[in-house]
């Protein structure tokens, strides 16, 4: 394994916002390689997020990948997610 500068995380410590930056080289990589790497990193980042959430007294969290086409009622799924967000954060 090697380190890469093709994808980086940028943070703003003052407002708690962050973003992912990619290079032109990243965009030129084969889509299957990008998808595989991103899935690995999303898993690792989710573990870090869950650990931080638990340090604040919250429950562990996880992410599940599903095909958008597998969601029979997208509007209903969005409503459920919005309700879960509201319940957790307000």
Shape: globular
Described by strand count, sense and barrel closure, the largest sheet is: 2 strands, antiparallel
Strand content: 5-15%
Q: Distance between the terminal alpha carbons, to the nearest Å?
A: 42 Å
Reconstruct the topology from this structure.
Blueprint lengths: L6 E6 L4 E6 L1 H5 L2 H25 L18 H16 L1
Antiparallel strand pairs: 1-2
Q: What would the keywords be for this entry?
A:
single chain; 90 residues; alpha+beta; two-stranded antiparallel sheet
Short description:
With 90 residues, the protein is α+β, with helices and mostly antiparallel strands.
Protein architecture, described:
The protein is of the alpha+beta class and 90 residues long. The chain is 51% helix and 13% strand. The protein contains three helices and two strands; from the N terminus they run E-E-H-H-H. The protein has helices at residues 24-28, 31-55, 74-89; strands spanning 7-12, 17-22. The mean pLDDT is 85.
């Amino acid at each position: 394994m090697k380190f890469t500068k093709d994808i980086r995380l940028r943070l703003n410590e003052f407002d708690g916002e962050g973003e992912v930056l990619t290079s032109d080289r990243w965009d030129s990589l084969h889509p299957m390689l990008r998808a595989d790497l991103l899935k690995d990193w999303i898993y690792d980042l989710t573990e870090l997020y869950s650990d931080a959430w638990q340090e604040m007294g919250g429950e562990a969290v996880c992410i599940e990948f599903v095909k958008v086409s597998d969601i029979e009622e997208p509007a209903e799924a969005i409503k459920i997610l919005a309700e879960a967000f509201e319940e957790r954060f307000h």
